[in-house]
Amino acid sequence: MVCTLPHRDPKEPYYVRTNGDCTLTIQSDMEKGAYIGLPCGALSRLLLFWLISEAYRTKSRRLFLGETIDGFLRAVGLDSNTGNGKRSDGKAQGGTCPIMRI
Considering all CA atoms of the chain, what is the largest pairwise distance in Å, rounded to the nearest integer? Predict the structure, then answer.
């Protein structure tokens, strides 16, 4: 993995990391005039790792994430009601809709 998501909330509406020729840029979306946050922390990084692994495994830039969000969460080993699963601390993180460019 060349670039990854932040470990903690950067408290900014954007996040940029560069490693060599690769730059990861994430920009928070706005809801009712306020930024809704960026994906950060262990769960977000693990989900990004899963997405990259699936793209590599399937050799495709398009991934099928399931018919529903519940199906996707089950596929990655998480409970859609609590966020619990392979994560040991059981903390659920709020959903965000950032714009990501790599």
Answer: 39
Q: How distant, in Å, are the alpha carbons of 15, 29, 39, 66, 90 from that of 100?
A: 9, 11, 10, 21, 26
Is residue 10 assigned to a domain? no
How many domains does the chain contain in total? Answer: 1
Domain that holds residue 64: 18-87+95-101
> Mapping DSSP to helix (H, G, I), strand (E, B) and coil, where does residue 63 land?
coil
Does pTM top 0.85 for this prediction?
no
Q: Which residues pair with 12 in a beta bridge?
A: none
3-state secondary structure of 6: coil
Task: Tell me how far apart the alpha carbons of residues 3 and 102 are, in angstroms, rounded to a whole number.
Answer: 9
**N- to C-terminal Cα separation, the chain:** 12
Tell me the pLDDT tens digit for each residue of 67-102.
888 888 877 777 777 766 654 444 444 444 454 554
